[in-house]
Amino acid sequence: MNLLHWSVKNVGIAILGALISQIIQYIVSYMAQQNTSDPDILKALYSNLALITLITLLVLSPILEEFLFQGILQAEILENLPPIFSVVLTAAIFAIIHGFGFNVGTLALFVSGLAYAIVFWYTKDLKMTILCHGLSNLIVVVLLIL
């Protein structure tokens, strides 16, 4: 992974992926009349753990999860499947592993997983997937605070 090469096109795709996934998640949650606030994260953001929470949500989680899901699962284990299958399967595993069972929360996470997997498939750049994931989490944090 070349850390110095950042294509404007790929950064735009990562930003677009984050925005579209969060808009779709909001629509899904709204239609299902599901509360989108997370009291545990809000509590952490307004505590002495705020800095650690932000670093975890915006940096550590995107890096670690995208290395696992896109870097290992999609790029290595599922590389021989047709792209549509590897993208959908990676997104489904991403959603299920986050532990919401099978409900609207799982569907919302599936949408994010799809965005990350598509960004990786299209750009072939793990940095862009990490950026997309970090921006998605940033949008969630900003909306939680507002």
TrEMBL record:
Q: Which family does it belong to?
A: Belongs to the UPF0177 family.
List residues traversing the bilayer. 12-32, 44-64, 84-116, 128-145
Organism's domain of life?
Answer: Bacteria
Biological processes per GO annotation: CAAX-box protein maturation
The UniProt keywords, alphabetically, are: Membrane, Transmembrane, Transmembrane helix
Name of this protein? CAAX prenyl protease 2/Lysostaphin resistance protein A-like domain-containing protein
Q: Which GO terms describe its molecular function?
A: endopeptidase activity
In this chain the CAAX prenyl protease 2/Lysostaphin resistance protein A-like domain maps to 50-139
Pfam families according to UniProt: Rce1-like (PF02517)
